[in-house]
Amino acid sequence: MPKKLKVRLSLFILLGWVLLLLGDRVDELRVYQGASIAVYAIAIGSIVLLTGYSGQISLGHGALMAVGGYVAALASFEFGVPFWAGFILAALFSGMFGGLLGIAAARLSGPYLAGTTLALAVGLPSLANQFSILGGEQGLYFDIGMPPAILGESFTQYKWFYWIASLAALIVFFLLSNLLSSRYGRTWRGIGSNETAVALSGSNPQRLKIVAFTLSSALAGLSGALLVMTISTASPSAFPLALSLSVVTGAVIAGVSSLKGVILGSVILVAIPEVADAISHRVGDTLRISSTLPGLIISVLLVLAVLFTPNGPGENLRHLLHKGKSHK
Known about the structure:
It is found in: Cell membrane. GO terms for molecular function: branched-chain amino acid transmembrane transporter activity. The protein is mostly helical. It has one domain (3-240). It is 75% helix and 1% strand. It is built from 13 helices and 2 strands, in the order H-H-H-H-H-E-H-H-H-H-E-H-H-H-H. It has a two-stranded antiparallel sheet. Helix 3 (61-79) runs antiparallel to helix 4 (83-105), helix 3 crosses helix 9 and helix 11 (262-283) runs antiparallel to helix 12. The longest helix has 27 residues, at 205-231. It is globular. The protein starts with a helix and ends with a helix.
């Protein structure tokens, strides 16, 4: 095993141990939020792969998350498939759907691709209302069952969600970090900066774009299945347009060209509802403000990030540190 791979594996094992300890030392709300952070982290990672590396802009990843969420729920609800197999199926079907979409996306660029994926995010989740097998507006119930008895009576359902989502995120980011540091990752980054140069070097940019879209869609589908797990239902209301815009905002805040900031982006997305709730209680008009304020905060954060930290706070800090060292 190469030395870099050993170091990376050791770091991920250590991080997993830290997450395990944290899950036993915080209350139920924080445990649930930890599971949500893991879900958002995978979704943001899919945007980093697609946009930060292959240069393809998607504003409709919420629709791909919906595909994964419905596949997992349908596999469990209709066919009795174990939840872990449902997650695998969610990633596979979302990847195949994304691969078909990627064939068309490889011929589009810039605002055309962004507009196409945005239309997908608007229309696809609402199609569930037209098919009774998908549960209509109420959706499909998704129950992964109680935690194994061996974990003890004090091991709650929320801790079970946290363990599953955190383990999935660790596996995803271990594989994704190795992939993006490989020749494929370097080639994808080359496509994003100079597609013509990549073509002249002997690679096929269109094919590589399709592969990137497929892998990104698979990750989005997995995050959608994990999201459905945490809310126990796959329904159109679980995958609104705001979800797509939230994931994009989280990716921009994280630094769309690097995986290092995904936790920061996902933590901010999970914290926004709490901030909105605190503000609404202070103002007084709780129901109206709490329903509209999160979207406003996300919009403001996206604009501020694009204006002042387009590469993400973490990437900007790294550049500042590097600049400071070079002056010494």
